[in-house]
Design a protein that fits this description.
Helix content is 35%, strand content 17%. With 332 residues, it is an alpha/beta fold. The chain has a domain of 139 residues.
């Protein structure tokens, strides 16, 4: 997915650094990714550790990690995927509120794709209510729909705004693609909670932190994905059709330092690794000051070319250099 702050390109660097500190054999370790997002880092460690604990308080993220991390046994999914792809279109909530043909004034998807999203999402919910699918299949299918729909969204990057004209990728017909996950012998834990509350209830060996860096709220930037995932009823607000969303204290300069220190203080993990970059609300020295209170601190810096959506070109990307900090704490 085209995701703000994705660690996909940095995942090998993060894995190598963690192994350089702890050792190459992580098979007896419990690894926690408490700001999981799309679950990229947890997925990287899923087959290498005893257990992954994955969490995010955005519901669309929970759906993705419930599939990619929570699912670990094979699923016979193809018949369901084929059935959903053959469904007739339906004028449901997405079409009525986020497609131009409905008169909503919004154009996040083509009319045809909006109706197809509605048809698929309604059928998945029907299967669940009739107990024709289990929870593993339920989250697998919704995750598949989220990722497929995202590729066809008529936006420049995030869902804070839609484009006036349908771009080429948004004109393609929606064909549901399976969100394939890694098979593993071990069970994993997945949560949809506030990280600072969850940290008091869990423990393990490695805690990986990738909190929001800046004031951009994920609940606003990805509200359409939450709406597809929840498929609930509400009155969309404003030009962009926003829903109510939870605000993260990590996105506020006035609250982030206190929130971060409480997380570190309450963490029952031997090793803590924090991804943060040079554009974050907390400075490098502020992070160092907090983490150093609780054990042996170190830092590794990596310059890399991240990619930003170019406003002038629909979801085409341009290189943008930034410095990633990986703060390391061996907790006392």
């Amino acid at each position: 997915m085209n995701y703000i702050g994705s660690k996909n390109k940095l995942s090998s660097f993060i894995e190598d650094t963690i192994k350089s500190v702890i050792g190459n054999d992580l098979s007896d370790k419990i690894f926690c990714d408490i700001f999981a997002g799309t679950g990229i880092i947890g997925r990287k460690f899923k087959s290498k550790v005893k257990q992954v604990i994955s969490n995010d308080f955005e519901y669309y993220s929970y759906v993705l990690i419930r599939n990619y991390i929570g699912n670990h046994n094979p699923l016979n999914y193809q018949e369901n995927i084929n059935y959903l792809n053959d469904l007739e279109e339906v004028e449901g909530f997405i079409y009525k509120n986020y497609c131009l043909g409905s008169g909503s004034g919004r154009q996040y998807f083509s009319d045809k794709n909006g109706k197809k999203i509605d048809a698929i999402r309604q059928k998945i919910e029907e299967w669940k209510s009739k107990k024709e699918i289990n929870s593993d299949m339920y989250y697998f299918l919704i995750a598949s729909l989220l990722e497929t729909a995202d590729k066809l969204a008529n936006t420049a990057s995030v869902y804070g705004a839609f484009l006036k004209k349908l771009k080429k990728s948004a004109q393609k017909d929606l064909i549901l693609e399976p969100a394939l996950f890694d098979i593993s012998k071990n069970k994993h834990q997945v949560y949809n909670e506030d990280s600072n509350k969850l940290i008091k209830k869990i423990e393990g060996d490695i805690l990986y932190l990738d909190p929001p860096y800046n004031a951009r709220q994920y609940g606003a930037n990805y509200h359409i994905l939450n709406t597809i995932a929840k498929y609930d009823s509400f009155i969309p607000k404003g030009k962009t059709g926003l829903r109510k969303y939870k605000r993260s204290k990590y996105c506020s300069r006035t609250s982030v330092i206190n929130e971060f220190e409480n997380l570190i203080k309450n963490a029952k993990f031997k090793y803590i690794f924090l991804s943060y970059n040079n554009e974050g609300l907390m400075t490098e020295s502020e992070v160092k000051k907090i983490m150093s209170k609780y054990g042996n601190y170190d830092i590794i810096k990596k310059d890399y070319q991240r990619f930003k959506a170019d406003r002038t070109e629909n979801r085409n990307h341009k290189a943008d250099s930034t410095t990633e900090y990986l703060h390391i704490l061996g907790k006392n």
